[in-house]
Description:
CATH class of the largest domain in chain A: Alpha Beta
Strand order of the largest sheet of chain A: 2-1-3-4-5-11
Number of strands of chain A: 12
CATH topology of the largest domain in chain A: Rossmann fold
Number of domains of chain A: 3
CATH superfamily of the largest domain in chain A: Response regulator
Oligomer: homodimer
Amino acid sequence: MKNVTIKDVAKVAGVSYSTVSRALSGSREISEATREKILAVCQEMNYTANTVARAMVMKSTMLLGLIVTDINNPFMSELAYHIDRQTRTRGYNIVLANSSKDPEQEREAFELMLGHQVDGIIFCPSSPASYNMLKDYIDRVPTVFLGENLRDIPQSYVSVDNFRGAELGTEYLYGLGHRKILYFGRRRGSTTHQLRADGYASACKNLGITPQYFNNTFPTTSIKNGYQLAKQLFAQEGNDFTAIFASTDTNALGIMQAAEELGIRIPEDISLLGFDNIRDASLPRIHLSSVEQPFKMLASVAVDCLLDKISNDQAGYSHRILYPALKERKTTARV
Amino acid sequence: MKNVTIKDVAKVAGVSYSTVSRALSGSREISEATREKILAVCQEMNYTANTVARAMVMKSTMLLGLIVTDINNPFMSELAYHIDRQTRTRGYNIVLANSSKDPEQEREAFELMLGHQVDGIIFCPSSPASYNMLKDYIDRVPTVFLGENLRDIPQSYVSVDNFRGAELGTEYLYGLGHRKILYFGRRRGSTTHQLRADGYASACKNLGITPQYFNNTFPTTSIKNGYQLAKQLFAQEGNDFTAIFASTDTNALGIMQAAEELGIRIPEDISLLGFDNIRDASLPRIHLSSVEQPFKMLASVAVDCLLDKISNDQAGYSHRILYPALKERKTTARV
DNA sequence: TTGAAAGCGCTAACAA
DNA sequence: TTGTTAGCGCTTTCAA
């Protein structure tokens, strides 16, 4: 399985190997005749340029690292898909790593990416705490954080406007006639979640309604956790709400599952609104209304931001906050 | 952002750079004292070995290509997750590419992977036709096909036993009392789909029931296509079945959507069985019964198979066919 | 046990 | 327009 190199091509074409390099790189300092001859030989010999060797001298691998918590998570695979599309058209390839939300694995992933000399990293952190832990790495390679709002951290990140999204959702529910809205899944240790809870609180205040919270006691958010939480919620006395605003779609799905078991009808008995608009939300029978993260846009802004950083070392950093939109489906109804 | 190299370390440690290399590679021809000193310096200087340079001389990048049709597809992201886990523990990283089921993009992906000198490729082809089209590439790099059964093609692949899976599903439905079972989504151009349809036919024959088919006229399988097909199915005259066996879960989801619109109740009016057991099948309100692909096992067998091939060029090829299992949920009921 | 030097496949500066 | 050569960061003989 010996690969054919530029030297093999040169030998066959009867030129020096730097001439072959020129032909391949589209240099103008070469005659049209030689170029064509060389290109023909390349074709014939099935020559594929060795990007690794090129990387050594160019100091660019055309590889971008993508560190996600879990590619299996629809939120992440949605982003990954768009990131791959965006970068491929610009000649970059993606090196993927899952962190499983484990800081140690995040560190490992960075280490690996650096070893592979990726030109930059798109990093979906497991929590804002990742920033401090990985600061040293981030100084060594252009990095943009994606998905998590890191507030005033001096690094580039792109995120949806979580505060505004929560306001939007609350206002929407209010518009449907709901006055008793429970915010489900407030969680510590995540700026994103903090902002969402704050947005909800702010909207409640403006609307003149009383905020109610049911907190997420788990360190992460998943359907399963949402389900267990929801069971607790529904089991407790004195509930008084007509709508639930779930902090994430996965939480909302957990609520649906609990409601289903308990015979609580959605939206007849309570309305349910999610946040993220993951693919699952649009599935038949689910039809989850949700505050939408503009995945494609998030991906493309993150990619642009990273490539900017790569081509211009001194560019500083930027925080790009995108607007969410409301996706109305069938889990929300007028009171 | 200049990276520290082995030479920088050597200078600080006061040794030659080949000594540093030895310390790092765990060579025994070095004194314990020097090794420790060097390792300490590496630590202190934040040295990360340049895998690219190492790859040049070792002729191994420790990179594996993963070509999927679409990482956004739960079937694929499921596999990708497990593949990443499996390979990471063995020191490999994943370069990801989406083909969008487009043969031209598959070719491009191979070209890119070869350029990056990946040590091997796990390839989830869009169709069996991919094999012929990409034969030349496959000769140049260890490759294993995943997900699609390529029958007697002289290349390694790992796949579930689609024939047996379809038999299993049919038998299960029969056991529930169903005698009129419609096979939904038979499609040309995919061995996988052919085998599933054949397995169904075989089971029908053994069971003494009459097979009924509703063909997929689209070139691909998706919820949307399944939905459109199902609308056609339900609109036609003379339907006579109590259960539908969908060729894939995505098709089944499409059927659910159509049934929902039309007020057809599942499983009260008809039972519905899927194939693949993608993550969506287990969602609340969906509860799709399905023939399960053992994703984790598929991934780990594919990884083993590929690493085998990489370490032993002459290993020939192998076809690994895994057993499916039946996952019973709530879309299937006794007649 | 350590150092010197060749070479992996390529690009780019310099010569011709 | 083309060829020669140095060198990217590393591993690995071969000498010392």
